[in-house]
Write a structure and sequence with these properties.
The structure holds two protein chains of two kinds. By secondary structure, chain A is of the alpha/beta class. Helices cover 37% and strands 23% of the residues of chain A. Chain A contains seven helices and ten strands. In chain A, helix 6 (197-207) packs parallel to helix 7. In chain B, 47% of the residues are buried. Classes of the chains: A alpha/beta, B mainly beta.
C-alpha cells in the first residue's frame, strides 16, 4: 500500500503502509531574511543555516522510518502546503494520506482519489462511526476493517421536507437507501438518518464509543474541518 | 519573436508571438539535483540524436535547470530535456524526455540513469530579484530513485543498481577555469560527435563542472567531459581524460589545441573543506577561424559569480532548414555582453526543432572584455524550418569578478569558515 505521510515531528511507525512519501512541514527559521534586501553573504549564511537544519532533521526522520517502510521520496515545505500535498498525491498516487499534523483541507484535495486519515488515538478501527453523504466513498476497505460499525447518513435539512425541491428530496432518499445498503453490508449495529452533521457526528461518536469517525468527503470541506478540530478520535475521510 | 513549440511532442506544433524582453533574476545559493532515468529501452547509434522517454520528473516553481556535467551514461549524454507543454520559469515543470546524444553505439536500458539535472531556485521580477529568498521560496523535493549507474570498464559496459538520495548542495559561487586541451591529433567530421583524448584534468573534491559557453575551437564545441571508469561523487576527487566534441565543420584537431574550457565550481553537501592546490600556467594552442595556430600560456584565474543574472533571447536572424542530428551554425540577432560576463544555455528545449548547444562570438574575446554573439550552434532533434525571428534558445548571463588564482583560497577559506560555524551551530 502506498501512503503519503504528512508530519511535523517524529512519529511512531505504527501505520499501515509499504511505500511512503513524506511531506515534512517546517517553519522558516528566524535567521532567514524574510523578503528583505540582503547582502550576498547574509543570504548565503542564512540559507545555509536554514537548509542544513531542515535537511538534517529530514534525514533523521527518513532514517527512522526507513527501518519499517520503503521511503520513496519527500517534500520539505515551509509554506505552499496545499500545493505540495497535491504534488505528492499526483506524483506518488497513494492509496491513503496520513496526516499527523493539522492541514488545511481544500476542495482540490477532496476531489483527489485518495483516502485521508488523521490519526489522533492510534490506529484502532474497532468501533467506527461512518457518516454517509451524497458522494460514493473512495474506498470501503477501511470501513470493512471495523468490527463494529454505526452507519449514519446525517441529513441536515435546511428547509422543512415538504418545502424541499424534488431534486433535494431525491438526493435524501438516495442517501437513505445507500446508507441502509451499506449498513447491511457492513453489519452495522445501528443506523441513524437525521441530525446536524457536526454536532450529531460528535455526539454519536461519543455515545457509540467510536475509535474512529469515518466521514464521507461529500459532507464538505467546512464540516470535515469542524469535525477534525473538535473530535478527539481518529478521523478518516473516505 | 515567435516561439515554436510542441503542443503534442512530435505531432502538433504550436506557435506563440511574444514581445522580446530582457528579464533578470536572483539565483539562490542552494541547489537540488534530479536524476533522469530512462523509461524505455533503446538501441543508440553514435551521433544519432535520440529522444528517450523518462520517468517523469516534476520540477518545482521558480526554478531553472542545467545538466550536471561529466558524461552520465556509458554510451552518451543528455544535452537537453523536453518538458510537457510550454511553461514559464515561474511555473511547475514536468520533464518527459531526454535529448540524448550517443557518443558510441550501444543500448540504453529502461532504468538507466541518462542524466542528472541541477535545479536552481530563482526569483524573477524587478522587486523579487532585489529581495532575499524566503524559506518558502525553496521547495525541497526528493525522490529516492532506484536506477542503474552505467560506465565503461575496459571496453565493457557495467551496470550497477543504486538508490539515489540527494537533498541538494550549497554553492559558493567561487570557481576556477580549466582549459580542455587535446592530447591527440584526430580528424573530425562535420556533425559526427567525437570522443577526443585530452590533457588530464584533476578536479578537486566538492566541485561540479560545466562547460564555459562560447565556442573556443573553429571546428566545433565541447558538449561534455568524460571521466574514466565509474562515475565519482561530487564530494570526491575526479579525473577528466576525454571530451565529447561536436564538430560543426570537418577538419583536423591537433594535439595541444584548445578545445574549450570548463568552469569548476566549489560546492558543499556537508562540511566543506578546501584543499589548497598549486596551479601553474598551461601551454596550449589557440586556433583561429582560418585555422592558424598560436601558442599561448593560459594563466590560472579564479572568479566569483554574482547572484543577479539575466536572460538573453537567442533569436534566428536567417531562414534555414534543419535536419535531425545535423548540427548547424545559425545566424542570430546580435547579443551584446558587457565586460566580465559568462553565459550558459538555459535548458529545456526552447524551439520545437532542437536546442542551442553553444554560441559563437563575432570576434574572439576574453571573459574580461566586451563581447558580441552573432551565431548559435543548433543541434536539431526534428527536421524542420527555422524562420527569421524564431526563438532558438535562451542564455543565462552572469557577471563575474575575475581575480588572480591565489585569491581563490581566501574566498574559499572565508566560505569554509562560515560553513564550519553554521554546521557547529546547527548540527553540533
Amino acid at each position: 500500500m502506498r501512503a503519503v505521510v504528512v508530519l511535523r515531528e517524529e512519529i511512531e511507525p505504527k501505520f499501515e503502509a509499504k511505500d511512503i512519501y513524506l511531506l515534512i512541514l517546517e517553519n522558516g527559521s528566524s535567521g532567514m531574511p524574510l523578503g528583505r534586501p540582503v547582502s550576498e553573504r547574509g543570504e548565503r549564511t542564512s540559507m545555509a543555516r536554514d537548509k542544513i537544519r531542515v535537511i538534517k532533521r529530514a534525514e533523521k526522520l527518513v532514517e527512522n522510518l526507513e527501518e519499517f517502510y520503503n521511503v520513496f521520496g519527500l517534500s520539505i515545505t515551509f509554506g505552499h502546503v496545499e500545493e505540495e500535498l497535491i504534488h505528492a498525491v499526483e506524483s506518488f498516487k497513494p492509496h491513503i494520506l496520513y496526516s499527523f499534523t493539522p492541514i488545511l483541507i481544500t476542495g482540490d484535495l477532496l476531489e483527489r482519489d485518495v483516502v485521508m486519515l488523521f490519526p489522533k488515538r492510534g490506529f484502532s478501527f474497532n468501533r467506527v462511526l461512518y457518516i454517509h453523504s451524497s458522494s460514493k466513498p473512495r474506498s470501503l476497505e477501511w470501513l470493512e476493517k471495523a468490527q463494529n460499525v454505526l452507519a449514519a447518513a446525517i441529513i441536515q435539512p435546511t428547509m422543512p421536507p415538504e418545502a424541499s425541491s424534488k431534486k433535494t428530496k431525491e438526493t435524501f432518499e438516495r442517501m437513505e437507501r445507500e446508507t441502509l445498503e451499506l449498513a447491511a453490508s457492513l453489519n452495522a449495529e445501528r443506523v441513524v438518518m437525521r441530525g446536524n452533521v457536526v454536532e450529531d457526528t460528535l455526539r454519536l461518536a461519543k455515545e457509540f464509543k467510536a475509535n474512529t469517525i469515518a466521514v464521507n468527503r461529500g459532507v464538505g470541506r467546512e464540516n470535515i474541518e469542524k469535525i477534525l478540530e473538535r473530535a478527539d478520535k481518529n478521523v478518516i475521510v473516505v | 519573436m515567435d516561439i515554436v513549440y510542441w503542443e503534442e511532442l512530435g505531432k502538433r506544433i504550436g506557435n506563440r508571438r511574444v514581445a522580446e524582453d530582457r528579464i533578470s533574476y536572483r539565483i539562490s545559493p542552494f541547489t537540488q539535483w534530479k536524476v533522469l532515468v530512462a523509461d524505455e529501452s533503446s538501441e543508440v547509434k553514435k551521433g544519432e540524436v535520440r529522444l528517450i522517454k523518462l520517468r517523469e520528473v516534476r520540477i518545482p516553481q521558480n526554478t531553472i535547470i542545467a545538466p550536471l556535467s561529466i558524461m552520465p551514461h556509458a554510451h552518451g549524454l543528455t544535452f537537453d530535456v523536453v518538458e510537457r507543454g510550454l511553461t514559464k520559469v515561474e511555473g511547475e515543470k514536468t520533464i518527459t524526455h531526454s535529448i540524448f546524444l550517443p557518443i558510441e553505439d550501444g543500448f540504453v536500458e529502461k532504468g538507466d540513469i541518462v542524466g542528472v539535472l541541477k535545479v536552481f531556485f530563482v526569483r524573477t521580477g524587478v522587486i523579487g530579484k532585489r529581495l532575499g529568498f524566503k524559506s518558502s521560496d525553496i521547495r525541497i523535493r526528493e525522490e529516492m530513485v532506484d536506477a542503474n549507474l552505467t560506465w565503461k570498464d575496459g571496453g565493457e559496459v557495467r551496470r550497477e543498481r543504486i538508490r539515489t538520495r540527494f537533498f541538494g548542495y550549497f554553492r559558493s559561487h567561487v570557481a576556477e577555469w580549466e582549459p580542455i586541451i587535446a592530447a591527440e591529433s584526430c580528424d573530425v567530421e562535420e556533425g559526427v560527435v567525437a570522443r577526443i583524448k585530452i590533457k588530464e584534468i584533476r578536479l578537486p573534491e566538492n566541485t561540479v563542472v560545466t562547460p564555459l559557453s562560447i565556442r573556443r575551437h573553429p571546428l566545433g564545441t565541447v558538449l561534455d567531459v568524460i571521466q574514466p571508469g565509474r562515475r565519482r561523487k561530487v564530494e570526491e576527487e575526479k579525473r577528466i581524460t576525454e571530451a565529447a566534441f561536436i564538430p560543426t565543420k570537418s577538419g583536423r584537431i591537433k594535439r595541444r589545441d584548445l578545445l574549450g574550457v570548463i568552469n569548476v565550481y566549489y560546492i558543499a553537501t556537508e562540511r566543506f573543506s578546501a584543499k589548497r592546490r598549486e596551479k601553474e600556467e598551461t601551454l596550449a594552442r589557440i586556433v583561429s577561424e582560418d585555422e592558424k595556430r598560436e601558442e599561448i600560456r593560459i594563466s590560472p584565474f579564479a572568479y566569483r559569480r554574482k547572484t543577479i543574472a539575466r536572460w538573453e533571447m537567442i533569436i534566428a536572424d536567417e531562414n534555414c532548414r534543419v535536419r535531425r542530428g545535423e548540427v548547424k551554425e545559425i545566424a542570430i540577432r546580435p547579443i551584446k555582453l558587457e565586460e566580465n560576463t559568462v553565459v550558459y544555455p538555459l535548458y529545456i528545449m526552447r524551439n520545437a526543432f532542437g536546442s542551442v548547444v553553444d554560441v559563437i562570438e563575432k570576434r574572439r574575446s576574453r571573459v574580461e572584455e566586451k563581447k558580441e554573439i552573432n551565431k548559435a550552434i543548433f543541434l536539431p532533434v526534428f527536421d524542420g524550418e527555422i524562420k527569421r525571428g524564431q526563438l532558438l534558445g535562451v542564455v543565462n548571463v552572469y557577471s563575474v569578478e575575475v581575480q588572480p588564482y591565489e585569491v581563490i583560497w581566501r574566498w574559499l577559506e572565508e566560505w569554509q569558515s562560515e560553513f564550519s560555524k553554521i554546521f557547529a551551530e546547527v548540527v553540533g
